[in-house]
Amino acid sequence: MSLSHRSFKQLLLWLIEGSRGGVNRGRIIEAIKEEPLNANQLCHLLGVDYRTIRHHLDVLEKNRLITAVGEHYGKVYFISQDLEQNYGDFEEIWNKIAKRLKNNGRK
Fold this sequence. Notes:
The protein is 64% helix and 9% strand. The protein has helices at residues 5-17, 22-34, 39-46, 50-62, 81-85, 87-103; strands at 37-38, 66-69, 76-79. It is globular and about 35 Å long.
C-alpha cells in the first residue's frame, strides 16, 4: 500500500523536521541514497554510535522510507521505492534543515 504524495510528504516532515532525531535520520537517508550501507558502515561514516543508528534505521524501515536486504549484521539498507519517487520532497525538507543548522553554527 502506497501513501498519497501529500501523506508521504507529511510523513517526511514529521520524521525529518518535526521530531527529535530527524537530523540523524536525514543524514542516514542521504548516505544510503549515495550508496547502500549496513548499520556498522553508517556508524563509522556518520560518527554516531551503533545503537543510535540501529534505532533510526528501525524507525525509517517501519515507516517504509528505507528497505533492507540480508539478515542481522549483514543487512544492507536502501532507500525505498516510495522515497525514491518522492526524493524531491526529502531534498526540500533537508535543505531547509541544513540552512537552519548552518545559521545556528552547525554542520
